[in-house]
# Entry
Amino acid sequence: MKIAKIEVFALRVPPKDGNVEVEWGMDCSLVKITTDNGIVGWGETDSNPAIIKTIFDMPTSHYLSYSLKDLLIGENPLDIERLWNKMYLKTLHYGRSGVGIHAISAVDIALWDIAGKYYNVPVYQLLGGKYRDKIKTYGTFIPYEDLDKTVETAKRSLIDGGFDTLKFGGTPFGLEEKYDIESVRRLREALGEDVGLAVDVSKLWPDYGTALSRMKKLEQYNLAWVEEPCLATDYESYRRLASQVKTKISGGEALTTVREFNDFMRIARPAIVQPDVTNCGGITEMKRINMLAELNSCKLIPHNYGSGVLLSATMHCLASFQHGDTMEYSNSLSPFFRDLDRNLVRSVNGYVTVPDRPGLGVDIDEDVIKEYSFTWE
Ligand code: MG
# Structure
């Protein structure tokens, strides 16, 4: 079996009011790999779609600066780890971290999907089998400037997904002290003490002093964790904060490869580590990062706010990890989350049921791809 064709789709929900930015989850890069015997594998990365498409389509420059299509066409898609290492080495000049690894992540996920379909087993079986049929979910939502609306969204999300823990974050959270404290106070008051509540700072607190003072003020609200209170690579500030506050600290969604996670876990000492399978290097790298998390006694709860491809890849990983008992579940209204995968797994009463279909188990609606594909000059 050989890789015959690779298609990369740059997707974007058209921004409102001519604003050049799109909301989180409103753009997406999908990779479709087709083999010479007709098996199709799907992969995703949450990165800038224009750069990702270029990494596949550009002409190769030299032996450490390859286009991914040149590296992969004609290869055996079942040689997943060999191809991972080949891609890493042959893109080293421009890759190593960031978008280079984002693109590799999408390929890697598609190759696991192909392997599952080829062997006619779910991906979790190829990862060593599953520890659990269901995974507990917590709900994530983006807050509003209007706190009444934020509280209303939290209550509705809690009811819809049956969650016992909610996390909120993204602007306006993280910008002003008044909003940060008041939003948590209002939500804690509305949800009661029995609901787990976490916040995601998304690296918006500008310095260590701000992070320390804000976390001290939030301690009284008994947060389940505070996510990314510092810049992603400021490992020393993470470590200092962890020694000064009682609340658990999490991070890692922006990091790539086991090399960065090794430094992060050893130096920053987070309680919770949150790799994103579509960015960290794919399923192959997530498996390595999970082993590192076990060695460093970190709880691994992957970042999971994208399309149904990300959701499925995350589920198969967690099902096969010894301590993979908690999964983020997005409350995104993005069509890439809601409509792209016809088999999208819902959170029911706070749990997702791991699918037994071969491969990732996704069924991609190519009409959604057509509707949101975009081009640029
Ligand atoms: Mg986050």
